[in-house]
């Protein structure tokens, strides 16, 4: 059984076993300090949830990597790559820090006018060495878009990390149908 099927099996079993448990650990609202130099490097996207994702989207998305490269000790150049069929899709962006720790903005540009395609990204929780939880919000033409990413430095996560991901998705009113990996 591959790592993705194992992860999905774990999420499914976990959901069934914890469905009646109201004592889930609350995800942190944000780190009080953020160490950009420790955060940079290669991360694997091990979980992804969002209000614009549906079950049918699962077949379109594959595991992918994200590289955060710190530039001038202030912003991150972010490079992503995903295998789709016989090709490798890549995309990149710049994450600019805000005045609050662990919060960034990304300007995706566009024709709709200044400021209409700005994404707000928050590192909700990380230990820098094995996992990170990111949440992003962006206003689309018809609705706000929310995305939560579970990142890992390797394919294995520390105990309790998937619980934090599930808890954060529930706190944001997302369901199992909104989780695509």
Automatic annotation (TrEMBL):
Source domain of life: Eukaryota
Subcellular location: Secreted
Annotated Gene Ontology cellular component terms: extracellular space
Transmembrane segments: none
UniProt key word Signal: yes
Annotated signal sequence range: 1-19
GO molecular function: small molecule binding
Alphabetized UniProt keyword annotations: Disulfide bond, Glycoprotein, Secreted, Signal, Transport
Pfam family, one: Lipocalin
Residues of the Lipocalin/cytosolic fatty-acid binding domain: 40-180
Family of the protein in this entry: Belongs to the calycin superfamily. Lipocalin family.
Protein name: Lipocalin/cytosolic fatty-acid binding domain-containing protein
Name of the encoding gene: Lcn12
């Amino acid at each position: 059984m591959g790592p993705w099927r194992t992860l999905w099996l774990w999420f499914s079993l976990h959901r069934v076993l914890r469905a009646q448990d109201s004592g889930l650990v609350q995800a942190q609202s944000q780190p009080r300090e953020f160490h950009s130099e420790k955060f940079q490097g290669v991360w694997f996207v091990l979980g992804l949830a969002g209000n614009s994702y549906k079950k049918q989207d699962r077949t379109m998305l594959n595991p992918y990597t994200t590289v955060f490269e710190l530039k001038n000790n202030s912003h991150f150049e972010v490079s992503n790559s995903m295998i789709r069929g016989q090709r490798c899709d890549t995309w990149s962006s710049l994450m600019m820090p805000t005045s609050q720790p662990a919060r960034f903005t990304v300007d995706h540009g566009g024709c709709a006018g200044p400021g209409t395609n700005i994404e707000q990204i928050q590192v909700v929780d990380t230990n820098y060495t094995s996992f990170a939880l990111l949440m992003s919000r962006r206003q689309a033409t018809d609705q706000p878009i929310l995305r939560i990413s579970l990142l890992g430095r390797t394919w294995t996560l520390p105990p309790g990390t998937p619980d934090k991901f599930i808890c954060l998705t529930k706190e944001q009113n997302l369901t199992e149908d909104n989780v695509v990996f």
